Every structure is written in C-alpha cells, then in structure tokens.
Queue: 2 jobs
Job 1
Amino acid sequence: MTDITDIKIFDTTLRDGEQSPGVNLNKQEKLEIAKQLERLGVDVIEAGFPASSEGDFQAVKLIADTIKNSTVTALARTKKHDIDRAYEALKNTPNPRIHIFLATSPIHREFKLKMDKQKVIDTSVEMVTYSKSMFNEVEWSAEDASRTELPFLAEIIEAVIDAGAAIINLPDTVGYTTPKEYGEMFKYVSENVPNIDKAILSTHCHNDLGMAVANSVAGIENGATQIECSINGIGERAGNAALEEIAVALHIRGDFYPYTTNLNLQEIKRSSDIVAKLTGMTVQPNKAIIGRNAYAHEAGIHQDGMLKNSETYEIISPALVGVSADTANTLFLGKHSGRHAFKDKVKSFKVELTEEELSAAFSSFKELTDHKKEVTDDDIYSIIMEIKTDASNIERYVLNNFEVNYEQDGLTKAHIDVVTPAGEHVSHEVTGSGSVEALYKAIQEIIREKTNLLDYQLSSVGGGKDALAESRVQIKINDQQFSGRGTAQDVLAASANAYINAVNRYLMSEQAAAPAESVNA
Ligand code: KIV
Ligand code: ZN
C-alpha cells in the first residue's frame, strides 16, 4: 500500500493576494478573511508584510493576536528592520513563523540586487541566523528559484538550513516554469542538498502561463510537503495557485494522488465568497470548483445524462465544497422574524458578532424587510460583512443625501450632499448624460482628491425583483488603484456608496501609511 503524505497548506491570500492591483483590504476585512481561513483549516496563514506599511503591521498584529489554530506568518526582506517589525507583529500568536526571502536567479542578482552569488548566500545566512534568534520557525524563500542555476540553488539551500531555516520555499515567481521542469527542480534539491532532511520543501507558483496548480502538484510529486496558494487564485499579476483547485484535485483524484490535507472542504465556497466580496475580485463564472457555472449543465445531452446518473457528467458533488444544491437562494427571514431567529441565522454563518454589532445588524435587517419581502442568506451575509468591516473610526466622506432628476433634453441632473472628513456639509449639482455619470461627476466635484474611474459594476445580491443592489468600482488616485463597494436597495444609492467607499479606502491607506518606500515582494 502507498504511504499517504500530509501536505501543509500555506495560504497567502492576505499577502500575495493582497498585492493584486486594486485590492486594498482594511484590517477588519483582513481579520474576517483570516478567521475564515482558520475555519477552512489552513495550516499557515501569511497575514501580510509588516514592514511595508503601518496599516499592514496593524493588520498582521490583529490577526496574530486573534488566530489560535493556524500558524500565523509574515513576510520580511533579508533586513533586520523587516524581521524586527515581523517579530513585533507576531509576538502574541502561539505559533509564529517568519518568512524571509531573497532572490537567487542570475537576472535578479545582476539587475535588481546587484549582488554576486556569495553575497546572496552571506546575506541569507546572516538574516536566517538573526531570525532564528527570535523565532522558532524560520521559512526562507529563494525568490525566482525556478530561473536559478540548480547547483547554486543547492549550495544556498544547504547554507540556510545550516543557519536554521526549517522550511525552504522555491517560488516560480514569474509563472514561467512547467510541471516537468518544476518537479525536476524539487527532485534535484532533494537529491543534492546533504542536510535536506532537516527542512521541508515548499511550492509557490504564479499563474502567468496558467500552470500554477499543475506546477504545485508536480512539486509535491517530487518531494515538497507544503503548498503556498491563495483563495480564488488571487495574487500578483495573473495570481497564485488556487487553493480550492489544489485541495479538490487532491481529494477527487485521491486514487492517483497519495496526499491528504487538513482542509475542511465544505468551507471552500464560503471562503471564496468572502474573499471575492471583500477584495472586489469577482470570480469568473467558469472558474473551476467555485465558479457560478461549475456545476451547471447546459447541453441537452448532458442534462439527460445527469438525470439518469449524476456521475455521467459531474465529477465533484457541489455539496463537497459547500455549494448549496438549491442554486436559487435559500429563502430566509422576513418582516415578522424576531431578534432570536436572526441571531440563530447569524450563528449559522459562524461569524461572531458583539451584542452591539448584532443590534446594528438586526436593525439593518429590519430596515431591509420594509422594502424586501423575502430576505435571503446572501442579503444577511452582506449586512453582517458591512458591519464587521466598517471603518467608521477614520476621518472620511459620508454620503448624506442625493437626488437624481431626468431633464427634458435627455440629460440627467444629480444633486448630492456629502459630509467631508473635516465634518463640513458640501452640496453640488451636476448634469450628465446618464444618472450614474451625473452622480459620479457631482462626487468628483466635492472630493478633494483627483480620481479616475477605471471600472464600474452593478449586480444583485440574491434573487428576486426586490434584491439588494451591489455596486463595485475601481478608481485611481495618485497612480494607485482602490476598489470600493456599496450595497443598497436602490441601484443609484449603491453606486454612490461604492464610489465614496473607494475614496475612503484611499484615505484609510493614507492615514495608515508609513514613510514611503516601495517594498512589494
Ligand atoms: O513569488 C514570490 O517569489 C514571492 C516570494 C516573496 C515568496 O511571493
Ligand atoms: Zn509570489
């Protein structure tokens, strides 16, 4: 019988995933995602990059102070300052891990680092030794490992293991490798690093050629026992290996892959939903495992086969990953439902609310039932997330009132009243060729920051004519992208809220920013 190997899942949604353009989560949102990752059963949560900004430091600290069942790690460059910041942020978590990285490939050595091979080894060894004086568990990454000369890779790995690194991560940083080549790199390292038995090997794959999941699996077939991945595959450029795809592939093809993970697969859909909602990165309908169409059968021949035996065309049961068989939304509470029933429903989402948050959520729910006959699970979840991730403690713009009128000449006039971060009421009236355009022009006139609208989306939460509207926008301020979302019964209110939310996220990042230094990994 084949031995079964336990594969550790290292989730980097909050670090590499958060590096996706336009994603800027506040610390409450990051905490909600971290709690969901803990429920999903990931072994390691990479909570952020504390030295990159004060905001990131605070978010990592909040997660480290809260999460108990997963190892919490944070990224650091091979610099004492970064390692000290990571230590400060992680010191209250029961299982802290530092994750330090330095590039090893010729192109990075020559053009980015301007270091020769020996300098890259010495710097890595020095900083692993320094990290080891503060952390029990040290992970070292060879950035751009997949484009590094194999003998040099083996040499530096041996040195950092001797210095105390217990996890060696070999990223395909630019998503360039192929499954065979990536697998061979792990095989080479396993066979040519004399002290490799003192460390575990880890994969970290980017999806530029669409091979991140296949490459990760090739890594474990050749000796890696940790996979770094992210929910919905979000991450730098084309993203990282998608956690849900790896998890389900290993499970469904357990006949072929002798591996287990500690993941609770039924939490996959919820994890995907929360990440999509909070990051604003919607999941494509045909995305494997969690896309809206992943379990939909359109062709007549397929539908006929499904009715006779679902296994004719369905290799994954939707229930396995927590997708409800009832694709129409579960009907939920209504006008006459009481606080008790509401509290029970909130409990079923496994989201903890304080009494104060529960009261706020209950009154939003009651308000909604004045306009909406059937309130769905999605509606309730949206309300709860709005409350859990509220950032009303920052100085920000608040939409006070707006009115939109259609003029006889086919134009639309928007009048808007906003409270500024300084507490002043400012109103403005603008004419545009459509209601959203007029509304957004009026907001742009009021706010101090120069904004550029990059993307605008409108969708409904749940089903029915009276569904809540959800709007998402991407805007650019000072060459940085920010996403915003707004939910309301009325589409224009949702749209206005989304725009103001995006501007407030810019203010939040400004208020949390440390002295500027570009440190994206
Ligand atoms: O892709 C990469 O190389 C990384 C490292 C910082 C681990 O994200
Ligand atoms: Zn990466």
Job 2
Amino acid sequence: MNNLIHKVINAEPYPFAFDPNTSALIIIDMQRDFLEEGGFGAMLGNDVSLLRSAIEPCRAVLDAARACNMLIIHTREGHRPDLSDCPQSKKERGNLSVGIGDVGPLGSRILIRGEAAHDIIPELYPIDGEPIIDKPGKGAFYQTDLALILQNNHIKTLFVCGVTTEVCVHTTVREANDRGYEALVIADATGSYFPEFQRVALDMIKAQGGIFGWVANSDAVIKALA
Ligand code: TIU
C-alpha cells in the first residue's frame, strides 16, 4: 500500500487536493480527426486551427504525469469499420456530403477505428502501458471499460484535458462527477472551435462551488506534480 501523499493545486473555485497515487490524467480525443484539416471536425465546418493551442499544454502535462508515474489514459472517439456501433442519428446528423465512415480529404475514413485520421496526433502519441479508450460516444465512460480501469487502479481524482471542451471533455467530466470522481479540467490544455464556448464551458464546470469540478491552468498542475 502506498503512503498517502497530499498535494494541493491553486485551482478554481477553490484549491484542489489530490494524491498522485490515486490520480489519473485523461487526454480526450486529441485525434487527427479533430485537429487536422480533412478530418471530422473540419467536415462539420469548423476551423480546426482553433484547437491547436491545446497541444503544447497537453504535452507538458503529459510529460509531468509520465515523470511521476501517474496513470495516463488516452481516449479516441470513433466507430467500428462496419459502423455497427454508430447510432443512425449520429450518421445522419448535419446532413453532410462527406460524413462518418466516408473517405475524407486525409485519405482515410472519417471517425473509423484503425484509420489514420482516427489516431492520436503524433505530438501526444501514447507509449506502452498507457491505456487507450476507444469510445463510440462523446463521454469516455459510455460503453467503454474506463470505469473498470479506474476502479482497478484505485483512482479517485482525474485531471482532464483534450478536445473539445464543451463536447467530449464536458460530457466526460459530467459522467465522472456523477460517478463520484473529483475532476480538475486543465483549461489551457483544452480547446473548442468556438472561443465563447471555451470560456463558458470552463465557467460552467467551476460555477456553483464547483458543480462538476475544478479548473486550473497547466502550469499550476505541472508545479504540483513536480
Ligand atoms: N464536434 C465537436 O466539438 N466535438 C466532437 O464531435 N467530439 C469531441 O469533442 N471529441
């Protein structure tokens, strides 16, 4: 049994206490499909360059978490090649000319597991021992084995970063909150295609005394992990 370590991060709405031995870093959907031209995010009409500011803070937190042997979990949104796990509603949403399962400008099928566009960007590529959660939905708990992995690793607190803030990060943090986890969202290591949603999504998490969790910047998290 590890000795308890008590660390505190200067976060909003109030200081966030955690033990690295019972904490995990979850990096949400830092995939080419969301961050590069020709992927799913671009197909939806978004300016994907707006997400790229999250890469360097994610990388810095990833390095710090690796250095202190914290559990690191990567997620990817996507579907089976036969789309049997993709709801019809998701396939039809947006009435796109090129949609989920079609070959996009990156030369690979949009949001399909095993395709190049579905994979994690090279800057943040997982290393051996870091679980990858392939999820069919926006939330990382929905129809995945994330809960089991967290439970088996005795995890109580989560550091969450990735994209997009108001969609997959928010959904995952809400799911985590309802399951009793304390979650801190690393503000500058998240990104949205909509600057106003980025601000409001972070405000929503920390409002009402931390209704879903805490918010802090990567430098505060890295300082606490050092
Ligand atoms: N469209 C959008 O903002 N996000 C997603 O579809 N998925 C994730 O957030 N990963």
